[in-house]
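INTERNAL AUDIT FORM
Audit reference: QA-55
Scope: verify that the stored structure record matches its stored sequence.
Auditor: D.O.
Record contents follow.
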Amino acid sequence: MATFPKTEEEIIALANDVAGGLQTHSDIFPAPPVDALTLENSITAYASARDAAVSALAASKQATDDKKRALDQMKGELKRILRYAETTTGFDDTKLRSLGWGGRRERQPLAMPGQVLNVVSVEQGDDWIELSWEKPVDGGKVAAYDVMSRERLSEGDWNTVGMTTDREITLTSQETGKKMEYTVVATNKAGKGPAGNVVMAVL
């Protein structure tokens, strides 16, 4: 059994075949519910609508291309005018604002990072410890984190035992049998921020 076509091309081909068949074989199909002339008119109407749709699509693409070209031209003209205005006024912000523009923003120096938050011991073993923390909520952008340790209650300097750009680290080959303190410091080109809270551990 034949199945009704799905694509427009197949449907229009079938419609032409049916219209032609109705005209040629009126003896077989003397009283169809839609006569051949009506079907042919529908075929013609479809063809006109299809052609109009194709033309409209082409016109729409042309209009979009025209709009883009016009926008690009306007952008180029604006940039030329603004460069001229900046040079003419010496980047004077007040004068440039009369054009809805503004002077150069002063470059802000990089600030040191803020304090690392919530340093915790996630897990530990015989000579290793895994630490995690949260990034500072203030200060300059963090470039890296220095992880530091020292023996608990000692007044000695902190020793850097690791560095990472992540917010967690696993330190291996740590001193065992001693009460140790760990902390984390955020760093960038401007310097080091305040040390985070201290975590105590005996490995």
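Auditor finding: record pair retrieved intact. The chain has two domains: 8-86, 117-202.
Action required: none
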